[in-house]
Amino acid sequence: MDPQRIFSAVYSQARDTQEQKYLDWTELPPYAAAEIFRNMLAQEVYDALYMPKEAEDYPLAKMRGNFSKKVRNLGVLAYQFVKQRDNKYLQEGQAWDERLLIFYPHQSLHQPRVLRSRGIKVLVAGFSSLEPTSDKVKERMMDYWSARWEREATLTEAALELDAMRIRNLARARHKARWSCVGSDPAIRGNF
């Protein structure tokens, strides 16, 4: 526990430039989290957040995890590196024996961060589902998604029709080749 950081947290005030007022220290973490969220969202394509590349791999879920980690790291004061004596990595959910681990000394973080310098530690951060507030945005999203699905359906249908046409042409060619052999051989022609 660092008395200087406690003093900084309680007596520091953040300034809200829009409303020209000072905020209590408890209002600082949501402001910092909102800034991180805006920066992360600005780098994403909104439609891509809801389109998984894998069956259970939603980009929005990854964004939630990254967001939580970034906000939490604004207030991390120190860390401790731990490794196994056999130099293998610890796996998530793995049971471990403290006697088989090497604990390195705590490392304090001194690079200033908005929350860290005030002694504020964020345990959990998250955000709710992303919903556009304008009906026009929702309509444009639906138009975009439906056009994309219609295009994919048209391409799939065209590919299947092409395959069917190739199969029919191959069958015609085989049929024609068979009848041309039959028509040229008098012994076979008499049997038909």
Would you write up a description of this structure?
- By secondary structure, the chain is mainly alpha-helical.
- Helices cover 49% and strands 8% of the residues.
- It has five helices and six strands, in the order H-E-E-H-H-E-E-E-E-H-H.
- The protein has helices at 3-11, 28-42, 59-74, 135-184, 186-190, and strands at residues 14-16, 21-23, 78-79, 82-84, 101-103, 107-108.
- The strands form three sheets. It has a two-stranded antiparallel sheet with strand order 1-2.
- A hairpin with a 4-residue loop joins strand 1 (14-16) and strand 2 (21-23).
- Helix 2 packs antiparallel against helix 3 (59-74).
- The longest helix is centred in the C-terminal third of the chain and has 50 residues, at 135-184.
- It is elongated, with a radius of gyration of 33 Å.
- The model has no long low-confidence stretch (mean pLDDT 78).
